[in-house]
Input
Amino acid sequence: MTNDRYRRFARLAFIATLPLAGLASAAAAQEGANGKSFKDDFDTLDTRVWFVSDGWNNGGHQNCTWSKKQVKTVDGILELTFEEKKVKERNFACGEVQTRKRFGYGTYEARIKAADGSGLNSAFFTYIGPADKKPHDEIDFEVLGKNTAKVQINQYVSAKGGNEFLADVPGGANQGFNDYAFVWEKNRIRYYVNGELVHEVTDPAKIPVNAQKIFFSLWGTDTLTDWMGTFSYKEPTKLLVDRVAFTAAGDECQFAESVACQLERAQSE
Output
């Protein structure tokens, strides 16, 4: 079974376990995006903005249970912790948050330090799917613990992936904070690492169309060794998020170092 099929099954398992109270009503694709431009420096975890995953896992391949106890903010940093702690049927606990609102075309940015450890996945991505009465669309940045010198980029369109691209993260994604951004437009997606363009997608068949929620997650596997590496747990580890921002197409950028600011300046020159 391919990695993309594993991911698809994982998402389907995830949406099947979401509380009904968290499901949004159906909305038109981009017209249904109800999230506005924002920046969150995580001085606190605003649960009006963020839904914290708690009490389930995404399927047999995931060796941890999502737990709200693995999610907190400390000194302006969002911490998602992976550690050995039995929660339900899993021997490890892990953390995930997702926005309650959906976002459309624009610039998505996060400043992140990835976790340590083979078999772990530190992810910043957007996603929507059948639980919200939409096809499975997704745009990903994923640091795989087996090789933290790279970040994997990918898109899913109506549950079809297979668009993986590996970009360099100078100095290592787990050694310090790095800036990850993508600019999602109707006709292209541009991916940036530390302000530098590293990948561009222009094939319409590979560009999602449905407004999506923003996610951060840290999870592990015992089975997806070809993709994520052999699981090797030594001690608790954390995905750290210093900042996240979304700038809707046409809006002013949200902070001075933003990729959206760079693009605004380039257009005005």
Notes: The CA atoms of residues 149 and 244 lie 22 Å apart. Residues 3-17 form the longest helix (15 residues).
